[in-house]
Specification:
Blueprint (H helix, E strand, L loop, with lengths): L1 E13 L12 E13 L14 H15 L3 E4 L5 H9 L4 E4 L5 H14 L4 E9 L2 E6 L1
Parallel strand pairs: 1-3, 3-4
Antiparallel strand pairs: 1-2, 2-5, 5-6
Amino acid sequence: MYTVKTKAHFDSAHFLKGYEGKCSNIHGHRWEIEIEVSGAPVEDGTKRGMVVDFSDLKKDLKAFADDLDHCLIIEKDSLKETTKAALDDEGFKIIELPFRPTAENLSKYVYDEMTKKGYSVVRASVYETPGNCATYSE
């Protein structure tokens, strides 16, 4: 069995509602996401010898990262409606997710979304900073 992996980056802000500490305030990160997929190499055709075509894997992970780039990632219902309406009115890009936007939860989100695209995902990692990473695998 072989594994291959690739990385992508995006810049965005988030906050953790109800957290007691600095992360309860809106702050940004240069996020790095890494996906690792496994499989046996294809035996024939143009992709012979490949587990996946790196260009496809990179393209799909980059598209995922680009969707989260330069936005505010929030947990659904974590902002007052008036605050969210004001930000929407100003044209800010807000991504509402059904979970708290921690590195841990985002790693599972990457895992699930890349699995939906048909990849045999081994693990997905999300780095908030170069030294702090959360990884999800099943």
